[in-house]
Design goal:
about 425 residues, mainly alpha, Growth Hormone, Chain: A, 17 helices, about 80% helix, disordered C terminus
Protein backbone atom coordinates (compact mmCIF):
# COMPACT_ATOMS: atom_id res chain seq x y z
CA UNK A 1 0.00 0.00 0.00
CA UNK A 2 1.25 3.49 -0.90
CA UNK A 3 2.69 5.42 2.09
CA UNK A 4 0.39 8.42 1.61
CA UNK A 5 -2.65 6.13 1.52
CA UNK A 6 -1.46 4.40 4.70
CA UNK A 7 -1.00 7.74 6.46
CA UNK A 8 -4.49 8.86 5.41
CA UNK A 9 -5.85 5.58 6.66
CA UNK A 10 -3.98 6.05 9.94
CA UNK A 11 -5.59 9.50 10.31
CA UNK A 12 -8.98 7.86 9.80
CA UNK A 13 -8.08 5.29 12.47
CA UNK A 14 -6.98 8.03 14.86
CA UNK A 15 -10.37 9.72 14.80
CA UNK A 16 -12.48 6.59 14.42
CA UNK A 17 -10.70 5.06 17.40
CA UNK A 18 -11.26 8.24 19.46
CA UNK A 19 -14.94 8.57 18.53
CA UNK A 20 -15.56 4.86 19.16
CA UNK A 21 -13.92 5.09 22.59
CA UNK A 22 -15.82 8.27 23.43
CA UNK A 23 -19.20 6.78 22.52
CA UNK A 24 -18.61 3.44 24.26
CA UNK A 25 -17.06 5.05 27.37
CA UNK A 26 -19.86 7.58 27.64
CA UNK A 27 -22.52 4.87 27.31
CA UNK A 28 -20.76 2.64 29.85
CA UNK A 29 -20.37 5.43 32.41
CA UNK A 30 -23.95 6.67 32.11
CA UNK A 31 -25.06 3.05 32.57
CA UNK A 32 -22.73 2.64 35.55
CA UNK A 33 -24.09 5.83 37.13
CA UNK A 34 -27.69 4.70 36.67
CA UNK A 35 -27.15 1.12 37.85
CA UNK A 36 -25.27 2.29 40.97
CA UNK A 37 -28.15 4.57 41.96
CA UNK A 38 -30.62 1.81 41.13
CA UNK A 39 -28.88 -0.70 43.42
CA UNK A 40 -28.72 1.78 46.30
CA UNK A 41 -32.36 2.75 45.76
CA UNK A 42 -33.44 -0.89 45.53
CA UNK A 43 -31.52 -2.22 48.54
CA UNK A 44 -30.20 0.74 50.53
CA UNK A 45 -27.19 -1.50 51.17
CA UNK A 46 -23.55 -0.48 50.78
CA UNK A 47 -22.69 -4.19 50.69
CA UNK A 48 -24.87 -4.74 47.61
CA UNK A 49 -23.22 -1.74 45.98
CA UNK A 50 -19.76 -3.07 46.83
CA UNK A 51 -20.69 -6.47 45.36
CA UNK A 52 -21.38 -4.81 42.02
CA UNK A 53 -17.95 -3.12 42.19
CA UNK A 54 -16.41 -6.51 42.88
CA UNK A 55 -18.22 -7.96 39.84
CA UNK A 56 -16.55 -5.22 37.79
CA UNK A 57 -13.02 -5.89 39.06
CA UNK A 58 -12.66 -9.61 39.88
CA UNK A 59 -13.49 -11.08 36.41
CA UNK A 60 -11.00 -8.68 34.79
CA UNK A 61 -8.23 -9.78 37.14
CA UNK A 62 -8.87 -13.50 36.69
CA UNK A 63 -9.26 -13.45 32.91
CA UNK A 64 -6.58 -10.90 31.95
CA UNK A 65 -3.77 -13.46 31.28
CA UNK A 66 -6.06 -15.42 28.94
CA UNK A 67 -7.05 -12.22 27.13
CA UNK A 68 -3.39 -11.50 26.45
CA UNK A 69 -2.84 -14.95 24.96
CA UNK A 70 -5.90 -14.63 22.73
CA UNK A 71 -4.91 -11.10 21.60
CA UNK A 72 -1.48 -12.40 20.53
CA UNK A 73 -2.75 -15.52 18.78
CA UNK A 74 -5.91 -14.45 16.92
CA UNK A 75 -7.23 -11.59 14.82
CA UNK A 76 -7.31 -8.50 17.04
CA UNK A 77 -10.02 -6.87 14.95
CA UNK A 78 -12.22 -9.96 15.36
CA UNK A 79 -11.67 -9.98 19.14
CA UNK A 80 -12.59 -6.28 19.49
CA UNK A 81 -15.70 -6.63 17.31
CA UNK A 82 -16.88 -9.81 19.10
CA UNK A 83 -16.31 -8.20 22.50
CA UNK A 84 -18.36 -5.16 21.51
CA UNK A 85 -21.15 -7.35 20.09
CA UNK A 86 -21.13 -9.36 23.36
CA UNK A 87 -21.50 -6.07 25.26
CA UNK A 88 -24.52 -5.18 23.13
CA UNK A 89 -26.10 -8.61 23.66
CA UNK A 90 -25.47 -8.49 27.44
CA UNK A 91 -27.24 -5.14 27.73
CA UNK A 92 -29.98 -6.44 25.45
CA UNK A 93 -30.41 -9.43 27.77
CA UNK A 94 -30.68 -7.16 30.82
CA UNK A 95 -33.21 -5.01 28.94
CA UNK A 96 -35.28 -8.11 28.15
CA UNK A 97 -35.22 -9.19 31.81
CA UNK A 98 -36.20 -5.70 32.99
CA UNK A 99 -39.20 -5.61 30.62
CA UNK A 100 -40.41 -9.15 31.34
CA UNK A 101 -39.56 -10.00 34.94
CA UNK A 102 -38.12 -6.79 36.41
CA UNK A 103 -34.51 -6.13 37.34
CA UNK A 104 -32.98 -8.26 40.08
CA UNK A 105 -29.59 -8.08 41.79
CA UNK A 106 -28.66 -11.44 40.26
CA UNK A 107 -29.35 -10.13 36.73
CA UNK A 108 -27.39 -6.94 37.41
CA UNK A 109 -24.41 -8.79 38.92
CA UNK A 110 -24.35 -11.28 36.03
CA UNK A 111 -24.42 -8.45 33.49
CA UNK A 112 -21.66 -6.61 35.37
CA UNK A 113 -19.45 -9.72 35.20
CA UNK A 114 -20.04 -10.09 31.45
CA UNK A 115 -19.39 -6.39 30.80
CA UNK A 116 -16.22 -6.57 32.89
CA UNK A 117 -14.94 -9.43 30.72
CA UNK A 118 -15.89 -7.84 27.39
CA UNK A 119 -14.37 -4.47 28.30
CA UNK A 120 -11.18 -6.18 29.46
CA UNK A 121 -10.82 -8.27 26.26
CA UNK A 122 -11.57 -5.19 24.15
CA UNK A 123 -9.26 -2.96 26.21
CA UNK A 124 -6.25 -5.31 26.19
CA UNK A 125 -6.67 -6.00 22.47
CA UNK A 126 -7.14 -2.34 21.54
CA UNK A 127 -4.09 -1.35 23.61
CA UNK A 128 -2.09 -4.09 21.86
CA UNK A 129 -3.19 -2.77 18.47
CA UNK A 130 -2.29 0.93 18.67
CA UNK A 131 0.96 0.52 16.74
CA UNK A 132 -0.92 -1.46 14.09
CA UNK A 133 -3.55 1.25 13.66
CA UNK A 134 -1.39 4.39 13.50
CA UNK A 135 2.13 5.31 12.43
CA UNK A 136 4.94 5.49 15.03
CA UNK A 137 5.03 9.29 15.00
CA UNK A 138 1.42 9.52 16.21
CA UNK A 139 1.37 6.81 18.88
CA UNK A 140 1.51 9.39 21.70
CA UNK A 141 -1.27 11.37 20.06
CA UNK A 142 -3.42 8.24 19.77
CA UNK A 143 -2.87 7.39 23.45
CA UNK A 144 -3.65 10.99 24.44
CA UNK A 145 -6.83 11.13 22.35
CA UNK A 146 -7.93 7.84 23.88
CA UNK A 147 -7.44 9.30 27.36
CA UNK A 148 -9.20 12.52 26.29
CA UNK A 149 -12.29 10.57 25.24
CA UNK A 150 -12.37 8.71 28.56
CA UNK A 151 -11.85 11.96 30.51
CA UNK A 152 -14.58 13.78 28.58
CA UNK A 153 -16.96 10.88 29.21
CA UNK A 154 -16.06 11.06 32.93
CA UNK A 155 -16.97 14.75 33.00
CA UNK A 156 -20.19 14.57 30.99
CA UNK A 157 -21.68 11.21 32.04
CA UNK A 158 -22.49 12.10 35.70
CA UNK A 159 -24.24 15.28 34.52
CA UNK A 160 -26.24 13.43 31.85
CA UNK A 161 -26.93 10.51 34.19
CA UNK A 162 -28.06 12.88 36.95
CA UNK A 163 -30.41 14.71 34.58
CA UNK A 164 -31.90 11.52 33.18
CA UNK A 165 -32.10 9.44 36.38
CA UNK A 166 -35.60 9.76 37.77
CA UNK A 167 -36.79 11.41 34.55
CA UNK A 168 -36.58 8.26 32.43
CA UNK A 169 -36.94 4.58 33.25
CA UNK A 170 -34.11 2.07 33.55
CA UNK A 171 -35.01 0.46 30.18
CA UNK A 172 -34.32 3.84 28.52
CA UNK A 173 -30.82 3.86 30.05
CA UNK A 174 -30.25 0.34 28.73
CA UNK A 175 -31.49 1.27 25.23
CA UNK A 176 -29.11 4.27 25.20
CA UNK A 177 -26.18 2.04 26.13
CA UNK A 178 -27.14 -0.52 23.46
CA UNK A 179 -27.32 2.24 20.83
CA UNK A 180 -23.86 3.52 21.85
CA UNK A 181 -22.44 -0.01 21.70
CA UNK A 182 -23.91 -0.63 18.23
CA UNK A 183 -22.37 2.61 16.90
CA UNK A 184 -19.01 1.65 18.45
CA UNK A 185 -18.97 -1.82 16.89
CA UNK A 186 -19.92 -0.34 13.50
CA UNK A 187 -16.96 2.05 13.63
CA UNK A 188 -14.55 -0.63 14.86
CA UNK A 189 -15.53 -2.97 12.02
CA UNK A 190 -14.22 -0.43 9.46
CA UNK A 191 -10.68 -0.32 10.92
CA UNK A 192 -7.60 -2.15 9.62
CA UNK A 193 -5.78 -3.45 12.72
CA UNK A 194 -2.78 -4.63 10.68
CA UNK A 195 -2.06 -1.38 8.81
CA UNK A 196 1.29 -0.84 10.53
CA UNK A 197 1.51 -4.10 12.50
CA UNK A 198 4.74 -6.07 12.57
CA UNK A 199 3.30 -9.45 13.55
CA UNK A 200 4.20 -12.92 12.36
CA UNK A 201 2.02 -13.34 9.29
CA UNK A 202 2.21 -17.15 9.50
CA UNK A 203 1.03 -17.35 13.10
CA UNK A 204 -2.16 -19.13 12.08
CA UNK A 205 -0.48 -21.70 9.85
CA UNK A 206 2.55 -22.49 11.98
CA UNK A 207 2.40 -25.11 14.67
CA UNK A 208 0.95 -23.29 17.65
CA UNK A 209 2.19 -23.45 21.19
CA UNK A 210 -0.27 -24.48 23.86
CA UNK A 211 -1.86 -21.67 25.81
CA UNK A 212 0.33 -22.35 28.85
CA UNK A 213 3.49 -22.49 26.73
CA UNK A 214 2.54 -19.22 25.10
CA UNK A 215 1.89 -17.52 28.42
CA UNK A 216 5.17 -18.88 29.76
CA UNK A 217 6.98 -17.53 26.70
CA UNK A 218 5.35 -14.16 27.40
CA UNK A 219 6.82 -14.20 30.92
CA UNK A 220 10.27 -15.11 29.57
CA UNK A 221 10.04 -12.23 27.12
CA UNK A 222 8.99 -9.89 29.92
CA UNK A 223 11.97 -10.86 32.09
CA UNK A 224 14.26 -9.53 29.35
CA UNK A 225 12.54 -6.11 29.45
CA UNK A 226 13.94 -4.55 32.62
CA UNK A 227 12.11 -1.23 32.39
CA UNK A 228 8.73 -2.94 31.90
CA UNK A 229 9.37 -5.23 34.90
CA UNK A 230 10.03 -2.09 36.97
CA UNK A 231 6.76 -0.55 35.76
CA UNK A 232 4.79 -3.71 36.58
CA UNK A 233 6.15 -3.92 40.14
CA UNK A 234 5.41 -0.23 40.70
CA UNK A 235 1.86 -0.76 39.39
CA UNK A 236 1.42 -3.78 41.68
CA UNK A 237 2.17 -1.90 44.90
CA UNK A 238 0.88 1.51 43.89
CA UNK A 239 -2.58 0.23 42.93
CA UNK A 240 -2.88 -1.56 46.26
CA UNK A 241 -1.99 1.62 48.18
CA UNK A 242 -4.26 3.62 45.85
CA UNK A 243 -7.13 1.97 47.76
CA UNK A 244 -6.42 4.51 50.53
CA UNK A 245 -7.44 7.26 48.11
CA UNK A 246 -10.29 5.35 46.44
CA UNK A 247 -12.01 4.70 49.78
CA UNK A 248 -10.71 7.65 51.80
CA UNK A 249 -11.49 10.48 49.40
CA UNK A 250 -15.25 9.87 49.44
CA UNK A 251 -15.22 8.94 53.14
CA UNK A 252 -13.44 12.16 54.19
CA UNK A 253 -15.52 14.52 52.04
CA UNK A 254 -18.94 12.96 52.60
CA UNK A 255 -18.75 11.39 56.06
CA UNK A 256 -16.19 13.55 57.88
CA UNK A 257 -16.57 16.97 56.22
CA UNK A 258 -20.29 16.58 55.34
CA UNK A 259 -19.75 18.07 51.89
CA UNK A 260 -22.93 18.59 49.86
CA UNK A 261 -23.46 16.11 47.04
CA UNK A 262 -23.36 18.88 44.43
CA UNK A 263 -20.01 20.17 45.69
CA UNK A 264 -18.68 16.61 45.87
CA UNK A 265 -19.68 16.12 42.23
CA UNK A 266 -17.78 19.29 41.24
CA UNK A 267 -14.59 18.00 42.88
CA UNK A 268 -14.90 14.75 40.88
CA UNK A 269 -15.40 16.84 37.75
CA UNK A 270 -12.23 18.78 38.59
CA UNK A 271 -10.30 15.48 38.60
CA UNK A 272 -11.61 14.64 35.12
CA UNK A 273 -10.84 18.16 33.84
CA UNK A 274 -7.22 17.79 35.01
CA UNK A 275 -7.00 14.54 33.08
CA UNK A 276 -8.62 16.05 30.00
CA UNK A 277 -6.42 19.16 29.80
CA UNK A 278 -3.18 17.23 30.23
CA UNK A 279 -4.35 14.65 27.69
CA UNK A 280 -4.79 17.51 25.23
CA UNK A 281 -1.30 18.74 26.15
CA UNK A 282 0.24 15.33 25.36
CA UNK A 283 -1.70 15.10 22.10
CA UNK A 284 0.10 18.18 20.71
CA UNK A 285 3.58 18.02 22.30
CA UNK A 286 6.57 15.97 21.22
CA UNK A 287 7.31 12.62 22.74
CA UNK A 288 8.83 12.54 26.23
CA UNK A 289 12.50 11.50 26.16
CA UNK A 290 12.72 9.93 29.63
CA UNK A 291 9.22 8.53 30.35
CA UNK A 292 10.15 6.47 33.41
CA UNK A 293 11.80 9.50 35.03
CA UNK A 294 8.76 11.69 34.35
CA UNK A 295 6.39 9.03 35.66
CA UNK A 296 8.49 8.61 38.82
CA UNK A 297 8.23 12.33 39.55
CA UNK A 298 4.49 12.34 38.79
CA UNK A 299 3.91 9.40 41.17
CA UNK A 300 5.76 11.32 43.89
CA UNK A 301 3.45 14.28 43.16
CA UNK A 302 0.40 12.00 43.42
CA UNK A 303 1.65 10.65 46.75
CA UNK A 304 2.15 14.20 48.05
CA UNK A 305 -1.40 15.12 47.02
CA UNK A 306 -2.74 11.97 48.71
CA UNK A 307 -0.93 12.87 51.91
CA UNK A 308 -2.55 16.32 52.01
CA UNK A 309 -6.08 15.04 51.34
CA UNK A 310 -6.75 14.91 55.09
CA UNK A 311 -5.41 18.41 55.78
CA UNK A 312 -8.87 19.99 56.33
CA UNK A 313 -9.39 17.47 59.16
CA UNK A 314 -6.38 18.99 60.95
CA UNK A 315 -6.88 22.65 60.07
CA UNK A 316 -10.04 24.66 60.60
CA UNK A 317 -11.34 25.78 57.21
CA UNK A 318 -14.55 27.39 56.02
CA UNK A 319 -16.90 25.42 53.78
CA UNK A 320 -15.89 27.46 50.73
CA UNK A 321 -12.18 27.04 51.51
CA UNK A 322 -12.62 23.26 51.81
CA UNK A 323 -14.42 23.20 48.46
CA UNK A 324 -11.73 25.24 46.67
CA UNK A 325 -8.97 23.20 48.32
CA UNK A 326 -10.36 19.88 47.05
CA UNK A 327 -11.08 21.32 43.61
CA UNK A 328 -7.40 22.23 43.29
CA UNK A 329 -6.19 18.94 44.79
CA UNK A 330 -8.37 16.81 42.51
CA UNK A 331 -7.41 18.79 39.41
CA UNK A 332 -3.73 18.26 40.31
CA UNK A 333 -4.34 14.57 40.98
CA UNK A 334 -6.00 14.07 37.59
CA UNK A 335 -3.15 15.91 35.84
CA UNK A 336 -0.54 13.83 37.69
CA UNK A 337 -2.30 10.62 36.68
CA UNK A 338 -1.93 11.53 33.00
CA UNK A 339 1.72 12.45 33.55
CA UNK A 340 2.22 8.94 34.96
CA UNK A 341 0.26 6.94 32.42
CA UNK A 342 0.69 8.56 29.00
CA UNK A 343 4.52 8.56 28.65
CA UNK A 344 4.76 5.02 30.05
CA UNK A 345 2.03 3.70 27.72
CA UNK A 346 3.69 5.30 24.68
CA UNK A 347 7.06 3.83 25.67
CA UNK A 348 5.55 0.36 26.08
CA UNK A 349 3.74 0.62 22.75
CA UNK A 350 7.07 1.24 21.00
CA UNK A 351 9.27 -1.07 23.05
CA UNK A 352 7.16 -4.25 23.19
CA UNK A 353 7.15 -6.48 20.08
CA UNK A 354 3.75 -6.73 18.38
CA UNK A 355 3.65 -10.51 18.86
CA UNK A 356 3.97 -10.10 22.65
CA UNK A 357 1.87 -6.99 23.28
CA UNK A 358 -1.29 -8.84 24.32
CA UNK A 359 0.52 -10.96 26.91
CA UNK A 360 2.60 -8.08 28.28
CA UNK A 361 -0.35 -5.71 28.63
CA UNK A 362 -2.49 -8.45 30.18
CA UNK A 363 0.24 -9.18 32.76
CA UNK A 364 0.33 -5.46 33.55
CA UNK A 365 -3.48 -5.47 33.90
CA UNK A 366 -3.35 -8.49 36.23
CA UNK A 367 -0.62 -7.03 38.42
CA UNK A 368 -2.23 -3.59 38.52
CA UNK A 369 -5.69 -4.86 39.52
CA UNK A 370 -4.76 -8.03 41.43
CA UNK A 371 -4.57 -6.42 44.87
CA UNK A 372 -7.20 -3.71 44.32
CA UNK A 373 -10.13 -5.69 45.81
CA UNK A 374 -8.01 -6.57 48.85
CA UNK A 375 -6.87 -2.95 49.16
CA UNK A 376 -10.44 -1.64 49.09
CA UNK A 377 -11.59 -4.17 51.70
CA UNK A 378 -8.59 -3.47 53.95
CA UNK A 379 -8.93 0.30 53.75
CA UNK A 380 -12.70 0.07 54.25
CA UNK A 381 -11.95 -1.63 57.58
CA UNK A 382 -9.10 0.77 58.51
CA UNK A 383 -11.18 3.90 57.92
CA UNK A 384 -13.82 2.54 60.31
CA UNK A 385 -11.22 2.05 63.05
CA UNK A 386 -8.48 4.71 62.71
CA UNK A 387 -8.44 8.48 61.97
CA UNK A 388 -8.82 9.03 58.24
CA UNK A 389 -6.14 11.72 57.97
CA UNK A 390 -3.47 9.45 59.47
CA UNK A 391 -4.37 6.54 57.20
CA UNK A 392 -4.12 8.80 54.16
CA UNK A 393 -0.81 10.30 55.31
CA UNK A 394 0.88 6.99 56.12
CA UNK A 395 -0.40 5.37 52.92
CA UNK A 396 0.94 8.34 50.94
CA UNK A 397 4.36 7.90 52.58
CA UNK A 398 4.38 4.23 51.54
CA UNK A 399 3.15 5.27 48.08
CA UNK A 400 6.14 7.57 47.62
CA UNK A 401 8.52 5.10 49.30
CA UNK A 402 7.64 2.34 46.84
CA UNK A 403 8.57 4.37 43.77
CA UNK A 404 11.71 5.78 45.42
CA UNK A 405 12.94 2.25 46.14
CA UNK A 406 11.87 0.43 42.95
CA UNK A 407 12.80 3.33 40.61
CA UNK A 408 15.85 4.44 42.61
CA UNK A 409 18.48 6.62 40.89
CA UNK A 410 20.78 3.67 40.08
CA UNK A 411 17.91 1.94 38.23
CA UNK A 412 16.99 5.13 36.36
CA UNK A 413 20.63 5.57 35.25
CA UNK A 414 20.75 1.94 34.16
CA UNK A 415 17.63 2.42 32.03
CA UNK A 416 18.90 5.75 30.66
CA UNK A 417 22.73 5.46 30.52
CA UNK A 418 23.01 8.94 28.99
CA UNK A 419 22.01 10.40 32.38
CA UNK A 420 25.16 8.87 33.89
CA UNK A 421 27.41 10.48 31.30
CA UNK A 422 26.76 13.94 32.68
CA UNK A 423 24.36 14.96 29.94
CA UNK A 424 22.37 18.06 30.81
CA UNK A 425 18.87 16.78 31.44
CA UNK A 426 15.67 18.64 32.06
CA UNK A 427 13.89 15.41 33.07
CA UNK A 428 10.21 15.86 32.55
CA UNK A 429 10.52 18.56 29.89
CA UNK A 430 13.20 17.11 27.60
CA UNK A 431 11.81 15.61 24.40
CA UNK A 432 13.09 13.49 21.61
CA UNK A 433 14.04 15.16 18.39
Amino acid sequence: MDDSIKLNRATYHLWTFTISKLISSFGAQVYSFAISFYILHLTGSATSFAMNLLCNILPRTLAAPFAGYIADRYSRKLIVVIAQIATTLAIGGLLFVSLTAGLSLFAIYTTSCILSLTSMFSGVTFTSSITGLVDQERVQRAMSLNQMSISFASIASPAVGGLLYGAVSMPIFLIMYMAASIIAVTLESTMNFNLFANRNENVETEKKESMWQSMKEGLHYLKRQQVIVIIIWIAFFINFLFGAFEVGYSYILIEKLKMASRSFGFTQGSFAIGMLLFSIYFSIRKEVKFPLLLSKRAIIAMGTIMGTMGLPLWLKMSTSMVFVYYMVMMFSFGASLILVNTPINVMMQKQVDDDYKGRVFSILETMATGLMPLGMLLYGFLYDVFPAQWIMLLSAALFIGVVLVIARPSIIRKVYPELDRGKAVKGDVEVSS
